[in-house]
């Protein structure tokens, strides 16, 4: 097997002097989806924040294409799309303005592409209203519209299904699976049980954390 795109080696995370997990190993290759499972407070969000370079591990290392993440901030920004559990939407801006702003961190997109992405998440007709007038599920959809643009290969998503209706959940599951099936990668947390899983799906339960490196 080729070297993993993303790799966690002997990872440990401590917060407020409490060890959330330790000696955690896993590897992620193109085409794979990794669902981080575990009870509330077990460290799922903390692990995603480590992978996104937003926190440093207490011990161990995260590697991107075989090199320490800490040495490759630029590569990380180019390759990773992070959507946190809060939708991260600015209420005074419209869906189009929010999306344009979020995309500017990676690749600025033309207006037509923004509108196509908003249509893909069911926001046709809402493109230019202030986001504070949208429902929680609609605001979540604004954030998720980034996944319908020219997105980087690795998606790190914290509770992406929050506030979505049944149809929204099914559509997002399909989109994530297809991203993996076309060579992308997804690491996500969700308390919901996925019904559409790509062939490269694996689960890492932090309540039973251990090794999920290449066997
Ligand atoms: N900013 C912070 N400062 C200190 N401790 C924190 C902070 N954020 C989270 N923690 C602690 O870290 C532990 C793990 O939190 P985390 O959010 O990673 O868990 P989680 O598994 O994602 O939980 P949930 O399923 O409830 O979303 C919790 O006990 C929490 O109190």
Automatic annotation (TrEMBL):
PANTHER family linked: ABC TRANSPORTER I FAMILY MEMBER 1
Keywords (A to Z) from UniProt: ATP-binding, Cytochrome c-type biogenesis, Membrane, Nucleotide-binding, Translocase, Transport
Lineage top rank: taxon: Bacteria
Pfam short name (any one): ABC_tran
Domain ABC transporter positions: 6-207
Protein's name in the database: Heme exporter protein A
NCBIfam families associated with the record: ccmA (TIGR01189), PRK13538.1 (NF010061)
GO MF annotation: an example: ATP binding
Keyword Translocase: yes
GO biological process, one term: cytochrome complex assembly
